[in-house]
Each structure stands twice: as C-alpha cells, then as structure tokens.
Amino acid sequence: MHPISKPDYMPIEELRKLQLQKLQKLVPYEYERVALFRRRCDETGVKPRDLVTLADLAKFPFMKKTDLRDEYPLGLTAAPMKEIVRFHCSSGTTGKPICIPNTKGDVEVWADATARCLAMYGLTDEDVLQVSYGYGLFTGGLGLHYGGEKLGCAVLPTSAGNTEKQLMLMRDLGTTAIACTPSYFLHVIEVAKKLGIDFRRDTKLRHGIFGAEPWTDEMRAKIEAESGVVAHDIYGLTEISGPGVAGDCGCGGLHVWEDHYYPEIVDPETLRPLPDGERGELVFTTLDRFGTPMVRYRTRDLTRLRPGTCPRCGRTMRVMDRVSARSDDMLIIHGVNVFPSQIETALLRIPEIAPHYQIVLTPTETLDLFEIKVELTPEAFSDNIRALEALRKRVLAAVKQIIGLTPKIILVEPNSLPRSEGKIKRVIDNRKK
Ligand code: DLL
C-alpha cells in the first residue's frame, strides 16, 4: 500500500469522529465569515452550536449553484485575499459563471484527494501521467496535475487538443496513464487508428482516468476493448474542489474521500436526507476547505451511497454509484422522463454503432420532434440500403425498449458528428430557444 492511501482504510468510528470534529470547526467558520450562510441559518433558526452529532448537519440550510451565481464573484469567499492562491471558475451551461477561490491549504487537500485516487488505480511514482484535461479555469488539468505530482508521477501537461502531437509525446515519453474526458479519449483512439498507432503494440499506455461527464458502463467496455487501457472513473466538481472527490477501485462504484468531503443523499423533491442504499441527490459539505467552504452543497448529481465497507478493497470510505445522470440533464420528451445515459446504454450495445451520437429535440406545432443521430462504424458503413434499414430498425427497437418512446433514428456517416476536447454536448434541445 502506498503511504498516501493510509487514510482510505481509517476505522469507521475514527472517521466519524474526525468528520464531526472538522464540521464543528468548519460550520462556525463559515457562519462568521459568509453573510449568506449566516442569514440562511438565522432564518432557519439554527446556530453552529446546534451541531452536536453528525445527524445534526441535516438541520442546516443547503447551498446551490444559483447562490454561487448570485454571489458572483466573491460573495461566498471566506478567506482574506492574501490567503487565496488560486481561482477556478466554471461557466456551466447558462448565464453567469461561478468563481471558487482556493487557499494554499485547499489546493493541498485537493491534491491529496486526487493523488489517493491515482494510487487506488494502481499508479505509482514510476508512471508517466499525460494530463489531457484542459488547463485553466476548468479544474480538470490542474487538479490531475497536482495530484500526479504529489504521487510522484512524471506529469506531462499537454492539456486538451492537438491530438497528433499528444500521440507523438505519448510514444516518445512513454506515457502509461492518460487523464481526459472519456469523449476526448474516443477522439484520441480515432486519430491513433488513422495514424496506424496501436496502443497495445506501440505505446506503454495502461490506464485511462476519465471523468467530468457521465459515461456509461457500455462506454467503458467499448473504450477498454478498443484501446487496451483500464478505464478508471474519477468524479468531482469545481464547487467542492475539482477532480478527485471520488474515484473507483474497480468495484463498479466510487469511493468518496470522506475525510475531506462529507457526503449526504437527499430526496431531490422533499430535500429530506435518505439512508445509505437509497438513490437521490448527492450533497457535499467540505471538511477541509477554507477559501470557499461549502455546507450542504446540492450537486444535482443523482446517485446513492452503498451501505457497508467495500467488499473489493476494504476501504472504509463510502462508495457511491457511478453518476449516470444529473437532475437537470433529465429531458422530458412527449411527457416521458428520459436521461441521455439511457440512450447511450441502448446504442452502445449494438456493435455496428460507433460511440458517437447526438440527441436533437425540435418543437413543432404538434408533438416535439425527437431525433437521434447515430454514427456508424467504418465497418458497418455501406451503400446496401436494405442492410442499413435493418440496422436502423434494430437501433430503434433497442432505444424503444429502454425509454419506451419512438425517436426518429438517423444513421450518419463515420466521423460526421462533432468531436470534443472537453465535455461533450450530446443534446441539442431547440425547444429551449
Ligand atoms: O468536471 C471536475 C472534474 C474534472 C471531474 C476532471 C473529473 C475529471 P465541473 O466542471 O464543475 O467539474 O463539473 C462537475 O461534472 O457535478 C457532474 O455532473 C459531472 N461529473 C464530473 N465527474 C463525473 C464523473 C469537473 N466521473 C460536474 N461521472 C459534476 C459523471 C461527472 N459525471
């Protein structure tokens, strides 16, 4: 075991005690310094001293993304500017950005969390880690960079894009692990194929560290089969630090580093806390962040915390299911709730379909038009109309079986849909315009 992983196995009672101690420091700190939080607590009639047990956290008010937007740029900042060493911002999909100032300690804690993920995936100081997440206001690049350096990896900070050069450096410098969005890695695979590069034969690449967007188990299987890497999941969000809040040990879920980030699951409608095992909205309280501390931040991500200790690795930090959906990603189509990940699951079970698709919704005078553009693999692409029509019907049946609706399936040529360097946009909802 790498020394960095030691806290992962902390006995549960010790962990709960530590969490309470940290909360009893964090909550008064936030109350004293962040006016919005103080006002909300006062309106709710709760005081920091009411936090006597971990269960008391449920008495405190929530924070959400609109609070960060409303308080932009620095309304939720708790530390003086001389203690701030870095800003990260996230634009989100609409409107004003959010801005998260980090102290030196915040950056160190975040690097610790990310390094622990990397160690859990099996990386060591022998690894060459190519960081192909974007560097800049987005947390992906710098987050993995600091985590990789903390573990002692040789970090190659390529950022996203310029894929041919990425592949050259990967070969020349012996990259063993790449960190990027799963959708960008799909593009890296394609470009490698075009250049005649076989990852297994021509590179030392063994690990992919993928996150920042939902990706299904079917996508994971496809990536692993095509590239030979082990595809690891990494989760996080700017408001809570960035990548590394949780990672997977191979058990199919993600361990949350609970000594730094305290997770809760709440019912997204009633906002009541739910017990481990039940699915709902993930909420985090940061235990060690002082630049922009968060008490009960609503992530909008839907998942559940698995009860008990991980049977695969014995880490005591709770496992959450992979995040396949955000509550605000849900599409209401013809009155039915549909998550894009359900469509991805259906499509990727069909071998002739490449992992590239786009969901397009357009208003009409009657029912909204619901189309799915689906890219064919080069092998499946042909001018045999009958074969293509049969394939289209199979795709439609697979999608219909999962979502219960009948979209218009449009098979498109290989390489015709947009590719991404960062988070991919798979839904074009013209109804919102
Ligand atoms: O995406 C941080 C990150 C960078 C995570 C690199 C992993 C790797 P934001 O841009 O603030 O931060 O977006 C956070 O992205 O609330 C989820 O909805 C989604 N997300 C992040 N990781 C995953 C994942 C970064 N592994 C939002 N699976 C989160 C599914 C993810 N969704």
Largest sheet: 8 strands, mixed
CATH secondary-structure class of the largest domain: Alpha Beta
N→C terminal distance: 53 Å
Number of strands: 20
| Helix amount | 25-40%
Structural class: alpha/beta
| Overall 3D shape | globular
What is the number of helices? 11
Bound molecules: 5'-O-[hydroxy(phenylacetyl)phosphoryl]adenosine
Give the amount of beta strand, in percent: 15-25%
**Rg, Cα atoms, Å:** 22 Å
Number of domains: 2
Biggest sheet, strands in spatial order? 4-3-5-6-7-8-9-13
In CATH terms, what is the architecture of the largest domain?
3-Layer(aba) Sandwich
Instruction: Provide the low-confidence segments as ranges.
Output: none
Reported by name, the CATH topology of the largest domain is: Rossmann fold
> CATH superfamily of the largest domain, called what?
ANL, N-terminal domain
Provide a concise account of the structure shown:
The protein has 11 helices and 20 strands. The protein is an alpha/beta fold. The mean pLDDT is 96.
